[in-house]
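fyi for ur records
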Amino acid sequence: MQDGKMIPREAAAAVLVLIGILAVPALAAPPPTDPDWPCQQRLVPELGAGAFWTGPPLDGAGDWKAEPRVSELVDRLSPRTVAAEDGVVAIGAFADAIAADPDRKRLLTLLFAGLLAETNQERSDVITRLKELGKRQHDLADIASHASEELQHIPADATGDAAAKRTDLEQRFQFVTQAFQNTQRTMRYACEAPTRLEARLGRYAQAIQSRL
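which gave:
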């Protein structure tokens, strides 16, 4: 640092740090199909029933939204804020309530169909927001890189207009770097959301199938 300002060599090094952080997901996992996908976890746009369900075919069960008891439970269990443990308890209570119903298996099958559909919707919303964050990170890294390149051509002891431009570039670089790092911290946690939803759906499927 010189006079509290970032010199070009330090600016260039900081840009390399940003680019390095941005490249980590690509090194830790197979290349994603979407360039804006920012997570180490593999991008799975939609969950299929086959990975979770070994019960009766979903296609022959009907429309889960047409069954009030099923749709009400799906609506309660689908939000991301619902813990898997609480959902499993609610599924058990539902299965007990319809134990004597001759349509029990179909209703339970519809319950899984609804939870699958709504979980996919929840995941889709999360994935969209993560891609938006990923694009923002790329944009911030580009801005920082351009600022660093400009700083390379302005001497640290510049005066007049050049000194003012250098100060503006240094401030812009520092702001962008901070914004990038803040978003990166948020993203590390947010990237777990699709995986958590997938794991919760697996718990739901097991709970339902154990009561068929």
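The chain has one domain: 8-209. thats all i got for now
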